[in-house]
Amino acid sequence: MIDLHTHLLWDWDDGPDDLYQARAMCRLAEQDGTDTICLTPHIFRMTRYKDDLGVLRQRMEEFGREMRAAGVPIEFHWGAEVFVHAEVVRAVEKYRFTVDQTSYVFLEFASEGVPAGAANMLAQLMSKGFVPVISHPERNRGFAARPELLFEFVNMGCAAQVTAASLTGELGKEVRATAGLFMMNNLVHIIASDAHRTIGRPPGLSRAVQAAARIVGESKARAMVTEIPRAILDNKALPDWGEPENPLRRKAWTQRLLGMPRRPSRAAVGDRDREGDPGSEAGPAGEGPKRARPGSTTLLKIKKKGA
After folding, report:
1. Quick count: other Cβ atoms within 10 Å of Cβ 68?
2. How do strand 289-290 and strand 281-282 relate by DSSP bridges?
3. Which of 178, 180, 188, 264 reaches 20 to 30 Å from 60, CA-CA?
4. What average pLDDT does range 157-168 have in this prediction?
């Protein structure tokens, strides 16, 4: 299995404090059946050295050297989890915080919600050849309250990652229900552990795959930790495992099936009518907002390595 979102790098963010903790996490992942891991340290949030990329590079080199010396039989890759802020497009373009120098880049929204202008920011990144991978949207209050936002972003060409512990219920019933809703509507593409510690937030994907299989079937659940993340590592288009669907179209029965609470009021995610709709962009004068054109992530043109 491939775990594409982890925080195994020690002494950088809110992950492990030292080499020994990081090595223990790798052993747990190996025992659970994970043979490929991408390290995605936080950038612009939760860093211990004020985003000093020199320190980050040093930690990455130390990690690779120590894991080889310890004989850890895991294939390691590098990426980052980039926190969304006003200059995020410029930062990604300048430093290429992508997964293994591919076009895919993990983006993390503040858990409180989705900011106005998010759709424009994502469109800018895609226009520059990047493919945003939205980290754990099921844990974001804005996406949970308005799941149609995630539908719009995926329809634009974004990918999304669901956390393993969300599917198993370890992060609460509401988060599990939201994760299930996104799974049923083809709005998340990969399962990852987002591991931070050996206790509390450990690595491991197998239990989440079992939980996902009860929602989307065993074949797709397995693909979310094998075939699809491998396509990202190889900088290829995502395999087609179903077109995204708007959860609002079948909201009533899926809420009953998954045990979801009723949709919160608009106040839960802010007054989008005053500040602008992050799920739309302005059209020509007099025509109102222009929605993202429906499309498939499998049709997205992706830059080749070295291009």
Report:
1. 10
2. antiparallel
3. 188
4. 98
